[in-house]
DNA sequence: CAAAAGACTTAGGATTTCGAAG
DNA sequence: CTTCGAAATCCTAAGTCTTTTG
């Protein structure tokens, strides 16, 4: 099975999305609605632990609980020594101020305000391994229970109405809700679904329903469409009510207290049951993702915290107190058997610190990357096959920003690869192609089954090595048969502490942004044009990292709209110019103050319109260039935010133009600490 | 030692919200 | 005020890398 017809099955999508990886500008790396809704909401309230009364004493529990113990142990990181020393005194001041706030004030003053300003980055870190000293939360919010369909909504089997048991009906609704999706027509999806559905049936149902193709879900499907339509048509008041309920839920369950601070939780709602849809050609698509019950849940919190109560009549699987991990809640998912977690928001200290650290590691790589590059170039000549393979793989990881490529269990997931797991069939060698020598053509599915397609000229030695690695191998054989990620990472660890394959992606992404910004920013440009330059720099990184997206469904249309706006603006500009001209002529004849003034104002109008036109044109360029490229992923995960902050400061660009509210929260540390001269 | 389990980051698509145009 | 497209947010899958287990 391995590797056969890799693209035959899934290439259609990928084909459409194929983008040119070699943009000219890119230089790589130095190289019923209402009533049912109400029921849902009430359910939340009852299935979660009882709401706390506002002014209960435990309300300030989180100020009291951790006590003075939280004096952090000193563990300055190599890279931030100076920073920490400089800010030490400041940090202490902040802290002591916190503590002196009188009791009464604490409750009245919204904690929000106070907490949002908390600058965790000015405080010392915990010793390695310890993630927190105090943790209190209210546990997860469970999915609303299944609500049986109204009697008049029918399911038909073999043309005849059939009333399903509640359990079977619930699973049937999952399928019905997906009826419009292409994947309900896929063989694997249908097979997996049917198998799991039958498990939920009563024995009578099982004996009657023997073929999925005889099942008619269309009525159910129509019902759900009508429901969602009705949802859209709800009155403002009803919508408002739902919104308020969500806010209440967020307020109650969306936050935890970790070491004196109230922090936002990322995913406090348990994933509802449904049909699994993996990405790409996934062997498990269509399987039933079962409902998670309190009995599945492990709670993690402090011993001395108020332990969250399980829903009435239920128990937690376990309550543990492990401060070596960051999660609050975990459970085992039934599709892959992997563990899922509830963790904190990216704005939290625990996530932010890690993020910061990630970029510091990448900056350390910057200091030794030349040495490492020389080293792997030497290793291309090694007598040992293992060393050569390692060196070539590392070259790809560095030059092309490929992912490490762990082995995957065959048949458990979609067939995708990264660097170490590349197979012979994924590359083609061209001694010469389009006037270039030693070209390697890559064509494989990477993470999320996104296609990576690239033709890269490589050094002769690399090329010769690849020929060697491919000798006497079948297409489905591993290209690097003596290598895996663990061997590679072990080697990297020896070259630099904390170095792993993914650090190269972070490093190359960030350094590329910095370079591109230097290259592309024109000091004379106005703000929109500078932002276009920023986006182009960002885009260079996204292309390097192969961050693709499906072109938005409305892309063509929105492009047309924008074009017509531009045309209209152009006309408006022509008109304004004509008016200016005649006003000038008029002024020349009349030579009075009033007509002079008219000329001035017309001039201004022309200027204004010119600027607007320019803005629109820039927008159009930006959007066109972005058709199949996703900027968000690199912005959020690969680009040292301090580079962007510094760039904004340097050119007087408001940070809001680059980062939205959520992103500003995530990168608060960088926004606070980076000056305009920051160098990655 | 290798395989499995565990913890955490990275990822694109779906859904919801927002804000400008009509 | 309504509509519509874009942006923001949500969702959870799919990776990486570390730790534990046998």
UniProtKB/TrEMBL annotation:
Gene3D superfamilies the record matches: 1.10.132.10, DNA Topoisomerase I, domain 2 (2.170.11.10), Topoisomerase I, Chain A, domain 3 (3.90.15.10), Yeast DNA topoisomerase - domain 1 (1.10.10.41)
EC id: 5.6.2.1
Start and end residues of each stretch annotated as Disordered: 50-80, 93-112, 579-600
Ranges for domain DNA topoisomerase I eukaryotic-type: 275-652
Compositionally biased spans, kind Basic and acidic residues: 66-78, 99-112
Gene Ontology MF annotations: DNA binding; DNA topoisomerase type I (single strand cut, ATP-independent) activity
Main location: nucleus
UniProt-listed GO biological process terms: chromosome segregation; DNA replication; DNA topological change; rhythmic process
Residues at the active site: 638 (o-(3'-phospho-dna)-tyrosine intermediate)
Domain of life according to the entry: Eukaryota
Official protein name in the record: DNA topoisomerase I
Taxonomic source organism: Geospiza parvula (Small tree-finch)
